[in-house]
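hey m, so remember when u said the tokens were messed up on ur end? i reran from scratch. heres the input so u can diff it against urs
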Amino acid sequence: MAQSTLSKFFTAEESRNLRSMYSAGDLEAVILQIKRRSGNLDNMQLNIAVMGDVGSGKSTFINAMRGLRSKDQGAAPTGNEETGMEPTRYPYRALSNVHLWDLPGTNSFGFEINNYLKKVKFESYDFFIVVSQSRFRENDAELAKRIQEQGKELYYVRSKIDNDAHALSMQGVDFSEGRRTILRDCVSNFQSVGVTPPAIFLISSFDLAKYDFPDLKSSLVSNLCSIKSNAFSLSLPKIMMEIIEAKIRMMKKRVWLMAVLAGALGAVPVPMPGLSSITGFVLTVAGLIYLQKQVGLNDKFLQSLASKVSKPTSVLKTEMNRRVPSKIPPVIPRVLLGITIVTCMIAGFNYSFNPVTLSIFGAVSSFAFTYKSLKDSLEDRSEAVQQLVKSALGSD
């Protein structure tokens, strides 16, 4: 699936405008345009992955959803012909801009689940339908767990339920009673592996008027807006990275140049201990001011944005500064590195180290401190922009 995340939601011209606005420093306009799009996702392409073991009936299910039989032109290959080792896209004619992807069977590769998910580009799909037959399988639980870990949704489909109905009838068991047992077992199996039970449908891909097939189709239609909205929300970090990447590359070059300049100055022999390190500090501060100005996340900007998106400034500021709890604050290694550099420089002069050695140490330490500090700051500010957009567009 070669389509970029940005082009999935915006036209080529809109994408260029978003990048241009950000490069010009108008982050507020970027956020407001993204917010407008979040309220109008009618033209969004929705990619639904249909997954399951080989023989589960997923290809037949896709044909049934599209109103086709296996021999019809454009139908997904079924049975012994189901040998595809690459995801295959099929348009779902009942809903515009919706595509059903027939993924290779989860048991069709000779390696474990992580490699399988990487092979089929698991993270690129917006919604999932896991198809199974006869019984709940280990792969079903693992797929559901991975899907929910992404924050995405799924339907669980027990196919070939007509075979189960026939077997129950032969045992003298009423199907309604057997249906309750099957549903109860599915829910129990999901819960036993720590998965929130998804919507479960018992279907026959040949008898489309019976069982849960009509309910599945109507459920997909009624939930389409929420599925698209969830997909858009989850895509925001990637959307923003595509918008800001050009300017980030430019700022990375500036960071590199300032670090090289700090290294060059740090290599110059000076009579006063630590002077080259102080020069590195000054260049680092200048670089931090430059990055702050380029990104533009100041109080005035936040107050203006808050009024446009109807959210308190304090909420935007809190969300913008949210970090992974286990992450060490970047200021700590910077301070420790700076203290180490100054201490070593002073010690070098006190013990009359070779001037060449001091020059090399001054160059390397000044470059390392400046580069590390500015690189971390740029990454922090890039993350802050993504967090801010998520907060500004999120519901209260």
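this time it looks ok to me. The chain has 15 helices and six strands. if urs says something different then somethings off w ur setup not the seq
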